[in-house]
Amino acid sequence: MPAFTATAPGKIILLGEHAVVYGRPAIAAPVNQVRARAVISAAPRRPSGEVLIQAPDIGLESRLADLPGDHPLACAVNGVFAELGISRPLACTIRITSTIPVASGMGSGAAVSVAFIRALSAFLGQVLSDERVSTLAFEVEKIHHGTPSGIDNTVITYNLPVYFVRGKAIQTLRLSKPFTLVIGDTGVASSTAIAVGEVRRRWQASTAQYEAIFDQVGRTVDFARNAIEVGWLDELGLRMDENHNLLRLMGVSSPELEQLVQAARAAGALGAKLSGGGRGGNMIALATEASAPAIAQALSSSGAVRTITTTIQP
Ligand code: PMV
Fold first, then answer.
1. SS3 annotation, the chain
2. pTM of the entire structure?
3. Per-residue pLDDT tens over the stretch 10-56
4. Which of 26, 161, 206, 262 could form a disulfide with 20 if both were Cys (CB 3.0 to 4.6 A apart)?
5. Pocket of ligand 1, candidates 151, 214, 252: which has the most ligand atoms within 8 Å of its Cβ, to mutate?
6. What is the phi/psi pair of residue 3, to 5°?
7. How would residue 244 be classed by pLDDT, with cut points 50, 70 and 90?
8. Under CATH, which number does the domain 175-312 receive?
């Protein structure tokens, strides 16, 4: 029996993080330079039903039966089994590897889930629709993030730039021209669940103030969407700057993120902001093909542990 392989890209949130948890729109795009990969092969010599999971990047090698039921990988496997009505599969080994940095706002958890769910369902003889893959991955996201908006599993499953509103049908974006982003990693690992929890506590304490900030983010995202669709990159850059200021007001920036955002702007970025949960992780800078190398260099000199230059395509 051949091995079944599936991969899924990383992602970045262009605009709208955090406010998206509260029903405002956000825009995200896939990053195909980094990927999660799941390979499943039958293990006919092992007892029937035994599923062995190997994730060398996180030092995990375990039988499914030995993982706690609320482990993200157990949740993904059991979700696929339930979806397909399978109780005892062929014995198999599932190996997961990923080049997506973890805990840095690039959707590594969701990408692992999507690759895993696709490979496992193909191994079990049924290819699931994108919608079902995304829904199953969302269930796993709840373990990672507590109250996820669903944007990560959506953009990663569809592998297209999306305009996303929680609970609504996804809208893919029509870009009139490609644009280039330089992603800079602060190297500070940050848990999205903690950042989301902190914003929730502040929102509970000062609801009117936070609702007003989220409304402003929503307007900024809509202007940015329009800028993306007509190819007005100066305007998109301004909206990214504006969104960054609103994220600072929410308290999710950090000294390292501020340093990189400033360095990118000084090196000619059209706009720059933190991306994802914040408090560490990644920032993004809007560049042109010509300015991207200098911006990447400036980010590295200002402490970025990694830069990725990616072009978002129509
Ligand atoms: O840190 P990331 O890129 O996984 O994204 C988190 C985005 C939030 O809006 C902060 C949370 C969410 O579930 O949408």
1. CCCEEEEEEEEEEEECCCHHHHCCCEEEEEEEEEEEEEEEEECCCCCCCCEEEEEHHHCEEEEHHHCCCCCHHHHHHHHHHHHHCCCCCCCEEEEEEECCCCCCCCCHHHHHHHHHHHHHHHHCCCCCCHHHHHHHHHHHHHHHHCCCCCHHHHHHHHCCCEEECCCCCCEECCCCCCEEEEEEECCCCCCHHHHHHHHHHHHHHCHHHHHHHHHHHHHHHHHHHHHHHHCCHHHHHHHHHHHHHHHHHHCCCCHHHHHHHHHHHHCCCCEEEEECCCCCCEEEEEECCCCHHHHHHHHHHCCCCEEEEEEECC
2. 0.88
3. 999 999 999 999 999 999 999 999 999 999 999 989 888 899 999 99
4. 26
5. 151
6. -80, 150
7. very high
8. 3.30.70.890
Q: Which comes out higher in pLDDT, residue 34 or 105?
A: 34
Cβ of 192 less than 6 Å from ligand 1: yes
- 18 CB within 6 A, ligand 1: yes
The 10s digit of each residue's pLDDT in 115-130 is 999 999 999 999 999 9
| CATH fold of 4-164 | Ribosomal Protein S5; domain 2 (3.30.230)
| pLDDT for the residue numbered 1 | 66
Q: Can you tell me which atom of ligand 1 is nearest the CA of 11?
A: 3
Q: Enumerate the domain spans of the chain.
A: 4-164, 175-312
Least confident range of 91-105, 171-185, 215-229: 91-105
What percent of the chain has pLDDT above 90?
80
